[in-house]
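Let us practice reading a record.
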Amino acid sequence: MKNIRMASPLYILREECARDLDAVLCRLSQLGFDGIEFLGFFGHSAEEVRQMLDRYHLQALGNHVPYAELTADPEGVLAFHQTVGCTYLTVADIPFDDLTALSGRLDELAQKAGEHGIRLLYHNHDQELIEKADGQENLARLMDATSAKTLALEPDLGWIEIGGGDAAWYLTRYADRCPVIHLKDYYASDRSLLGRVREFVPQRGTVERGHFEFRPTGYGVLNLPRLMPLCLRCQPEWFVMDHDLAYERDIYSDLKLSLDYVRGLLSLMPEA
């Protein structure tokens, strides 16, 4: 149950990756990560990225690809990611205006992805919780409009809470659809003051915005000891130590804090 692989996201390291992706992957391997969740490949070919991963004994969890890019050239996109070694592909910037039509198109894309050994994911931010239709959060609307076979959920627990949602509810309702879970942590003195935090990031929130800031996993207000049993019931393959900004702190030190915290917490969980 607890043999879950640990991945580092590259969003927090995107500037370093643009300068030297190989050096970043080397460092993440030295920190003890099992794999990488990409945010593009920084100008490298699929073969070059695969060679870097193999060199440092890392696995490619997946990558984030805009929906429009995937639909424009599904075969090319999927073949590239298959060469890299990705087993998941997170579909970004999905349109919510016609979920019936979207569901049909995603069915087709999921079938093609499966032929390449890839499963489609959707990763939430805060807006899918803030924005609703008929009182239902957009994230739940999307999940309910698609099948588990078509689209898995990559819940970002921190963004769910930041958007005003209930992370425990999503982990419970979609327990059979969460193979990858983002353990984003953050601080806020009052979540009701946050609003849309991307209105002020990369700056920290002021007192009027609840003193918001991103933090390493285990060092903020996300109650991961309470949520971890629900995470484990999802039987995830991957946890992602995900926070968007380190501010003046050292990024690698933050990621190591997150990794050590999660592994330590898992060691305390009772065996199923």
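A brief commentary: The chain has a mean pLDDT of 97.
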